[in-house]
Design brief:
The chain has 2 helices and 9 strands; from the N terminus they run βββββββββαα. By secondary structure, it is an alpha+beta fold. Among the domains are: 91 residues, Immunoglobulins (Immunoglobulin-like, Sandwich); 37 residues. Strands 2, 4, 5, 7, 8 and 9 form a 6-stranded mixed sheet that branches. A 3-stranded antiparallel sheet has the order 1-3-6, with no helix packed on it. A hairpin with a 2-residue loop joins strand 7 and strand 8. The N terminus is likely disordered.
Length: 185
Amino acid sequence: MTTSALSAPTSSKESTPPHPTFPLNGAVVDGAATTFEWLGVPEATAYHLQVAPDRQFVRDVLELHLGGSTSVALHNTLPPLDRPYFWRIRATSPVGETRWSPYGRFFSGNDAQVDSFRAEKEGRELEERRKAAKDRARKEAELDLIPFIERDDTIPSASISRILGLTMIISFLLVLASVLLATVI
């Protein structure tokens, strides 16, 4: 089997690479204790992890050959940088190596930077939830302006219509029976 740093392996059987799950999307992680996680590949016997300050993985590449676990924690390995780190993973199985996964991007920082990143992320998520709730309330208020009978959300289903019709018929028959009984007595 032959490979280059950026190409897929040449093997008799191509397979899907592992899928990076953390860290991604420019997350800020604690450089003193960084955990990498990925979705594994069936029948993988080992994984090969690369971490580098450039997305081509050509300089200052940290390479780790790992067992079958789908996560690894690095301690005091990634100093904080003013630019991102990139990481990728590939699996080894009895049929060969997979191609490299798409890379994940993250920043290594100290506790204060990690806390700040998390607070910003939680603030954005809270603002998105508030906006969604406000949009739902606005849509409900707009529905209040539509006459009840014309609203799509108030039109009964066919089964409810049948039940209402049957209830009305039974009610009519009960009233009719009571009127007939009242006139006979």
